[in-house]
């Protein structure tokens, strides 16, 4: 989704037709589809009895964001 939405927007803009503009306005302005960005973060995967972190790993987590208007 990270790369697909900008490519979709670019494709619609480059088509420069009334149909492409209608689809772009519907998708980005009216339906307001959310996009997500994968960001790395550190998470605890093993804890002690006292809730202290014993083992951490880095993994990507999806963060939702709004798309720009068309």
Q: What would the principal axes of the Cα set say about the shape? A: rod-shaped
User: Average pLDDT across residues?
Assistant: 88
Strand content: 35-45%
- Gap from first CA to last CA: 17 Å
Which regions are unreliable across 5 or more consecutive residues at pLDDT < 50? none
Query: Roughly how many Å is the radius of gyration?
Result: 19 Å
Structural class: alpha+beta
What percent of the residues sit in helical stretches (DSSP H or I)? Answer: 25-40%
Q: How many helix segments? A: 2
Describe the sheet with the most strands.
Answer: 2 strands, antiparallel
Biggest β-sheet: strands ordered side by side in the sheet: 1-2
Number of strands: 2
* Overall number of domains: 1
Please write the string of helix (H) and strand (E) elements: HHEE
EC number: 3.1.1.4
Organism: Anopheles minimus
Cofactor: Ca(2+)
Pfam families: Phospholip_A2_2
Can you tag this structure with a few keywords?
single chain, 70 residues, alpha+beta, two-stranded antiparallel sheet, 2 helices
Task: Characterise the protein shown here.
With 70 residues, the chain is of the alpha+beta class. The chain has one domain (4-66). 36% of the residues lie in helices and 40% in strands. It contains two helices and two strands; from the N terminus they run ααββ. It has helices at 4-15, 18-30, and strands spanning 34-47, 53-66. The chain has a two-stranded antiparallel sheet. Strand 1 and strand 2 (53-66) form a beta hairpin. Helix 1 runs antiparallel to helix 2. It is rod-shaped, with a radius of gyration of 19 Å. It starts with a helix and ends with a strand.
């Amino acid at each position: 989704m990270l790369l697909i939405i900008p490519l979709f927007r670019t494709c619609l803009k480059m088509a420069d037709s009334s149909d492409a503009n209608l689809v772009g306005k519907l998708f980005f302005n009216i339906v307001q589809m959310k996009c997500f960005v994968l960001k790395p973060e550190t998470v605890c995967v093993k804890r002690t009895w006292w809730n202290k972190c014993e083992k951490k790993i880095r993994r990507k987590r999806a963060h939702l964001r709004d798309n720009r208007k068309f």
